[in-house]
Design brief:
single chain; 212 residues; alpha/beta; two-stranded antiparallel sheet; 6 helices; 33% helix
Length: 212
């Protein structure tokens, strides 16, 4: 899909309807210590790289991760297509910036100088055939040595649609995710894969890659 034809960010009526419920159920964005440590390790990589610009939190939702990264000293912009989720984020974190945009960063995000990108459980809602162009769009916006962090539910191989409670969603095998990033111009640095538990139906992958 050509991002130039997108006039408005993708809408997320499911997240709009359930935003308040999400805020009640998920007061923290991290369900495990590993998730928190992975995001903080990503933040350290961004700091060490020292690139100009902002960290873009793609699919920032209720804004907790955006706020966490700001507390760690990063300049961060959250982008979120759900108006209801973004309104909660703005109310709870008035010191942070949130834009109505999506992963293509073709709306207000088009004017942002990007130093790094974080996408936790938001790429899952992009149709798989669009993901290569999304990653290519990121590559065009990022300089050599900049980093991205992507988190998603995993599949054993390839890409598999699953019954997400809010919106259409797809699980990615870690290797397929890494290959798609590689084709867009990113090389994997590291990944973590956690097993299912009481809060996770599927394994989760957090994958960090660097722009070549």
């Amino acid at each position: 899909m050509d991002s130039s034809v997108r006039q408005e960010p993708l809408v997320q009526p499911g997240y709009d309807a359930l935003a308040r419920r999400y805020a009640e159920l998920f007061p923290s964005p991290y369900l495990t210590h590993l998730e928190r440590h992975v995001v903080h390790a990503f933040a350290d990589l961004v700091t060490d790289a020292g690139h100009r610009g902002v960290v873009v939190d793609v699919g920032s939702g209720l804004g907790q991760v955006t706020a966490d990264l700001v507390e760690r000293g990063l300049d961060v912009v959250g982008v979120e297509p759900s108006d209801a989720m973004r309104e909660i984020a703005v109310r709870n974190y008035p010191g942070c910036r949130f834009l109505r945009d999506d992963a293509y960063l073709a709306g207000p995000g088009a004017t942002v100088e990007v130093a790094a990108i974080l996408a936790r459980f938001s790429v899952i809602h992009i149709p798989p055939e669009e993901v290569p162009e999304v990653f290519a769009t990121w590559a065009r916006r990022l300089g050599t040595g900049t980093v991205v962090l992507i988190a998603c539910q995993t599949a054993d191989d390839g890409v598999r649609e699953f019954d997400h409670a809010v919106a259409r969603a797809w699980r990615w095998s870690p290797d397929r995710l890494a290959e798609t990033l590689d084709e867009a111009g990113f090389e994997e640095i590291w990944r973590t894969v956690s097993r299912p538990d009481a809060d996770h139906r599927f394994p989760d992958v957090h994958l960090v890659a660097r722009r070549r």
